[in-house]
Amino acid sequence: MIAVPDDFPSVFEGSEAHERAQKLGEVRVFTERGADQEAELARRIGDARVAVNIRAHAHFTDHVLAACPNLKLVSIWGVGTDNIDLAAAARRGVTVCNTPGANANAVAEHTIALALAVARKIPQIDREMRGGSWPREMLTQLCGKTFGVFGTGNIGSRVAHLGRGLGMEVATWSARSDTPAAKDDILRRSDVVSLHVRLTPESQGFIGAREIGLMKPGAILVNTGRGALVDRDALLAALRSGRIAAGLDVFHDEPLQPDDALLGCASAVLSPHNAGQTPEVRRDGLLRAIENVENFLAGRPTDVVK
């Protein structure tokens, strides 16, 4: 039995990956929201041996895993694992797989697009022109500027490559090998800062008031990783004061509510966590998630999260 408890908004049902999964046995797909509640997520998984995790709003906590003793594999569509209690999964003998690299090109392109949209003030200029204006203010050129890329996995490495293609000086930082002092140095030097580190308890609030204080006045912060990598209050204060600008694809609470304070920040360009929403990413990533299921059932697990 394979359960897909969180296909909301639906991308899996009726897809090529769904058809391929059905060849492995019974597949139950839930396309309405509700999997973000522990009891409901556990009910949807039920006695399934495999769960395919589509959305990060479904939290596979210890309580959920305890309520599903038959569960042996969680196969994630995507890279992030912050919605999975990995320690609990290990204790309970549940293997966790993800699909690293499947969305790297799309997310990297979106990262650069956000940086350019902020630097060139494209949303603002578009609105003003549609209102009858002909704005002629000065814009920011990225060529020759310093690009600080935090996280050197598949996405971060691709972002760094594209940044160099724009003629930027790229400085990268990795949690595995670089020091806090190196982080501070890059923050001080960078005109654009982009976040691609994995969200963990240690990286929550990776950019806070102290780090924003190190950044150049007018620097651009781009976040296509996870909202919680940035302290929300510090970000709002910096945007409201005009100290920095931002391009954001991820948020602390998703979707944004109509009264969210970020919507009133003119120096921020926002997109609805859709950096990886391309036909190629959807097709290849979902197929890769099912390939991980196939390999697990054949006794040769792939893309296992360490």
Question: Can you walk me through this structure?
Answer:
- With 306 residues, the chain is α/β, with parallel strands linked by helices.
- The chain folds into 2 domains: 2-102 and 278-297, Rossmann fold, CATH 3.40.50.720; 104-270, NAD(P)-binding Rossmann-like Domain (Rossmann fold, 3-Layer(aba) Sandwich).
- Helix content is 35%, strand content 14%.
- The chain has 11 helices and 11 strands.
- It has helices spanning 16-22, 38-45, 62-66, 86-91, 104-119, 122-130, 154-165, 180-189, 209-214, 232-241, 279-297, and strands at residues 2-4, 27-29, 50-53, 73-76, 95-97, 146-150, 169-173, 192-195, 220-223, 245-248, 268-270.
- It has a 6-stranded parallel β-sheet, sandwiched between helices.
- Helix 4 (86-91) links the parallel strand 4 and strand 5.
- Helix 1 (16-22) runs parallel beside helix 11 (279-297) and helix 5 crosses helix 7 (154-165).
- The longest helix is centred in the C-terminal third of the chain and has 19 residues, at 279-297.
- The mean pLDDT is 97.
